[in-house]
Design goal:
The protein is of the alpha/beta class. It has one domain. Helices cover 43% and strands 21% of the residues. The protein is built from 3 helices and 4 strands; from the N terminus they run ββααβαβ. A 4-stranded mixed β-sheet has the order 1-2-3-4. Helix 3 links the parallel strand 3 and strand 4. It is globular.
Length: 75
């Protein structure tokens, strides 16, 4: 996850990977997965724009965080 502001001053959140939510045998332990989940959820709620690096990540954002597909753009 990468956070920045664009030229107009809008908060942008760029999400590149959410595999820790899909894969239960991920290298992260339960605490780190939960912590990352909470940080990403909070950032997505406060974001003015959401950018996903690929269509799989965009589908995961919709699936796990219920962000409307209209608000998610692909890089």
């Amino acid at each position: 996850m990468k956070k920045y502001k664009d030229k107009a001053g809008v908060k942008v959140v760029e999400v590149s990977d959410l595999s820790f939510l899909r894969e239960r045998d991920h290298k992260y332990g339960w605490f780190r997965r939960h912590y990352k989940h909470l940080r990403i959820r909070r950032a997505l709620r406060k974001a003015g724009k959401i950018v996903a690096t690929d269509p799989v990540v965009a589908a995961d954002i919709y699936k796990y965080y219920r962000i409307p597909k209209d608000n998610i753009s692909l890089k």
